[in-house]
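Service request form, structural biology core

Requester: graduate student, group of Dr. S.
Request type: structure prediction, single chain
Budget code: on file
Notes: please return the result as structure tokens.

Sequence provided:
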Amino acid sequence: MANPPREACGVVGVFTPGEAAARTAFFGLFSLQHRGQESAGIAAADGTSISCRTEMGLVSQAFHEFDLSRLPGHISVGHTRYSTTGSTHLDNAQPLEVEGLHGRIALAHNGNVINALPLRVEMEGGWSCRFTTSTDSEVIAQMLVNAPGKDWGERIAYCMRRLQGAYSVACITNDTLIAMRDPLGVRPLCVGMYNGGWVVASESCALDHIGATLLRELAPGEAIQIDGDGLRTIHNGNEGKRALCSFEFIYFSRPDSILDERSVHAARREMGRQLALQAPVDADMVMGVPDSATPAAVGYAEAAGIPYQEGLIKNRYVGRTFIQPDQRLRDLGVRLKFNPLPEVLAGKRVIVVDDSIVRGTTTPHVVGLLRSAGAKEVHLRVCAPPIVSPCHFGVDMASKGELIAAQKTVPEIQEFVGADSLEYLSVEGLFRAIGKESDSCCAACFTGQYPIEVQLELGKMALER
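Core staff response, request fulfilled:
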């Protein structure tokens, strides 16, 4: 993908009587690493107290055997972060530990609360809450642990009436695991059975990796409580409207996950098929920009009857680094991530399938790589509609002024990236591919029509002091 949007986070919660839950949370987080690479954290509870560790970097960098041994207990919550609200430093890493009227909790959050700033001001004044981070996640945690209500169900109901935006949350008390999903179900959250206990996670692939059995996805607006009495729903706050993020199908979720009862891999393959029907072109081969566009490229090739081949090899170990390349390497740009195969591309008319174009600054380099390897023609096909509006619900995408499709027409973008032709999948084709009705998913980044009114954009640093 060219300048991919970044997801907020991945969350996992574990309740495994008689077992060390932190170890299970670690392996669950490991499979959610694609959702965030800035920091990782795990908190664990043993029935009487909570212990927590957070660190910058990848899950494998943040935790070693010694660290897990210092997180005892049969209840755990984990988090891997990409910041959408608040800067990138350790104070904002999760899980967040917060103490209030109803005790102490450790909370992990995926999404974005768009009214976090006024809620924080209100709680600092009328509730006398003291905030230690610049994240909207702490607004959720402080509200949850101080909300009126005799039990967690009533407190969650209060929170859901006040919070606006997207939030899939897992949190623990000394003896309980709680999970909740916002009333629109913007961000995914599922629950599975594991060794006589339960696991909640952002995606079903996390359950697969630890050997858990997918039970179901939490319904929009649902909150569950897991403790010594088992699993039960303690709140249902859905009012009939649903707005699952359509970008989960396009890019964010791993292809081996099940999302809203639909295989992500199958959905992406169908996006390619729909794109081939909508935007055919004579060519010698079809290739995808690895890795997220590969299923769509295979689907395009199948529907078009054109051979699929790999034309770019991806360096899967680039990742995030604090070591900056010198100017000579910086000028090479996309070559640090991709390398073309001239023996495959030379003299060929090539269809290149990508999952989306956001800012468009990388796409010209990809096209240029293919031409330098001898491609005769480069036809770009994008299996998402043009992105014309920013996301306010947990995706660090770009401002409207940075979105190339908000500033240029499709022919202008084609000229800018240097392709022989450029076509996007239509919004209607996208919904056909994912098998959903248009009123069941959020497609605001393509249409500008948000599922809830957004009066003011919450900037990433809006809660910084």
